[in-house]
Amino acid sequence: MTGIEGPFWRAIAVFRVASVVYAVALLIRAGGYAHPVAGWLVIGVMALWTVVTVFAYSVEELRGRPLLAADMLVTVGCLLATPFVQGPYQEGSLPVTGTWMGGAVLAWGVHGGRRLGALAALIVSLADLWLRGLGEMDVETLPINGTVLLFLAGVLVGHTARLAKKAEERMQQAIEMEAAGRERERLARGIHDSVLQVLALVQRRGQEIGGEAAELGRLAGEQEAALRELIRLRPVTPAAGTADLRALLQRYGSTTVTVSVPATPLTLPVAVAWEMAAAVGAALDNVTRHCGAQAPAWVFAESDDGTVTVTVRDEGPGIPPGRLEQAAADGRLGVAQSIRGRIADLGGTVTVVSAPGRGTEVEMSVPAARNADVP
Fold it and tell me: Which parts pass through the membrane (predicted)?
């Protein structure tokens, strides 16, 4: 049994089994009633049907109107067999089914909500009252306790089950929305690292050159803005195994970028290592974009107390106060997503230290022992 309904059906199964045991105890205590053979026959039918329903209701495909109707017919049939087992009705006595007749009411309530639970309670109650001679009773002697309990059980259990179903549906929707948001952010980071930067470069160079190139730059700018709005990402299966972050970082070494790594491996899950390296790449792209293609930059990597930290430093003009917040508000995802978003998804932190005219230092830290279960 899966889903939120599973515990309800298991509880009903336990109730049915316990009710059969209770009915057997009543039969034994009454000495078999007036007709012991008929009594044991009815108990046998109840036990057999209990086994059938325990299995049938555990299979989602079998739950439906045919099973509910059969459940009610068997329940009412066993209930109406009481006179043939016990003889003439005696005030205060329980039918041969005992509490077992409530199982069908609970099943209807769980499957169809409080209205169907109330309808099932009405059917079973009318059969019980007819069995007790409803036409011969007056209002004062009308046995309504069992009827009230059946209605309460059917309505309350049905209402609770319906609320649980709605809560499960809303939770699933929230999970799907969150997953979709995370996937969009991942694609946004990847696009920013490649396509968006190229479009931005074309736009900037077109404006600088002028003429027809300016129109080309304008079109590139429009496509860049449109692409930011259309970001979507398909699910990606995470890579398995581990990787040495040092090898990924050393690829960035050049005449302008100095990479310093420790002598010992910086072992991380593959997905974490690649995302960490991509964040470093985004930081270096920002250095090139804002400080110039020949601006020097330094990458430092270290491991300490279960944390791997990579720092990217430059000696450029620095970041004015509020610039990062404004860039994020304008949809420019260089730091907000390509760096901070990536590291946050890995369970890490990003610290940006900068001041106008004093360069920028971006420090990225992730747990070294993180499991390889990131998206």
Answer: 12-31, 37-59, 66-86, 141-161
